[in-house]
Amino acid sequence: xxxxxxxxxxxxxxxxxxxxxxxxxxxxxxxxxxxxxxxxxxxxxxxxxxxxxxxxxxxxxxxxxxxxxxxxxxxxxxxxxxxxxxxxxxxxxxxxxxxxxxxxxxxxxxxxxxxxxxxxxxxxxxxxxxxxxxxxxxxxxxxx
Length: 144
Description:
By secondary structure, this protein is an alpha+beta fold.
């Protein structure tokens, strides 16, 4: 596999993180293949399900920005592993929730590529942080 293709795939994985960090759903839509899928692990993590479609994943990004995140930035990866059509990143996020709780989740993400597009992401999160985050979500205000 050429180093040019490997570089393009690494750039695609980084662009995905950048687009999630800036709530750029249109940018994500362009990066993803039509048959894109997303899986969240471990399976005990709140919100995990078997596989999300492209539209489901984009909807979850929009929901998270509308209801949870005030700001988000993925820090430089701790580790990058590449193989033909696969990029694996170990990254940490630095952000803030809308209710003032620091957002510092840690991730292992496996990006799979086909034809220059991301066809899947398998996302492993810090399950303890994720459970604590979900427990801290403020209750909705009562209807008036």
